[in-house]
Amino acid sequence: MKLYNKLHSVLIIFSCLILSGCFAPRYKAINPNALYNPMNIVNFTNIPWPLQAWIPKVKKSSKLRIYIEGDGRAWIHRSIPSIDPTPKSNLVHNLLAQDKTHDVAYLSQPCQFIMNASCNPDVWTFGRYSATALQSMNTVIDKIKKINDYSEIELVGYSGGAAMALLLAAHRNDVTLIRTVAGNLVPSFTNEFHKVSPMPEAINPLDFANKLSTIDQIHFVGNNDNIIPINIANYYRANMPKHNKINIVPVAASHARGWVEHWQELLVYQP
Questions:
Q1: Given Cys at both, which of 9, 19, 113, 165 links 157, Cβ 3.0 to 4.6 Å?
Q2: Cα distance between residue 243 and residue 146, in whole Å
């Protein structure tokens, strides 16, 4: 009952915000064995909240670039959470499929593609960006890193996956570059901007501004994105103690369209 009382206070625009597939092409499976660097799908369940990862079959370098999924289909209506947060768009998989420069991996958000008894709507609604989500994702990255003995990590976070990329980088010492795509960099500010309910369990990336300001970052922002407009990235940058490593790059895209077409040119952008 407590959960559903909270749900009724959420506005419709928030359901679009956390749907990384909102207004995007429907999900169409990509064969990880057909990628430039073939990958294995591994389900991690012995963690607080289960996650799915795609991991390179063969190590080709000491650097691993990890693509982090968005919030997926968390809501089906402003007051009704989804029963399955798995994305309805393959946007992040399509970005990964174009990346041929380094070893790449994919990491879902909790309970996407795979569920167990710990999964419930609170995980993918008000539990996003929480300590438990962070612990689960950090543990999986440690396991992936150990499998092929990677020494350096880059993170690419889409939409809500951007917030997790920042939180992961703030709690690790091996992240050398963060890229975000239509990224929700400050969930609390985004909620205020859209005048929707706060998320008490969410960790604020700005609480780790000192650490994050030492890491190179490229934040790609869609010129036509009404869900995560550029002022959210500007707010994030303005609250960093140092700005020289924080790069904001406008792109001719909306929240979920235009990124695949531009990704090859965006990948070569350097901080």
A1: 165
A2: 33
